[in-house]
Amino acid sequence: MDCRDLVLRGAYLSRPLAGVALAALLASTTPVLAEEMCPIGAPGIAVCGAAPDLAQDLSKRRVDRTLATNPAGERLGRLDAPGTIEATQPFGMTPDGNNANFNTSLTQWSAALSAAELERLKKVKETSGDDLVLPKTVKSPPPKFDMWAKGRRESFSDGATDKEGDALTTYVGADYRMSQDFLFGGLVQFDESRQSVVIAPEGIDGKAYMAGPYMAYRVTPHVTVDAKAAWGSAQDSAWISDNNAHFDTARMLSEAKVKGSWAIDQWQLSQIGAVTYFDETGDSNIGGIAGTSVDVTRFSMGPELKRQFATGNGASVEPFAFFKSSVDLSNAALQDPTALNTVGGGVVLAKPENFNIRAQADYTESMSDIGEPEARGKVSVSVPSSLFGF
Question: pTM of the prediction?
Answer without folding.
Answer: 0.76
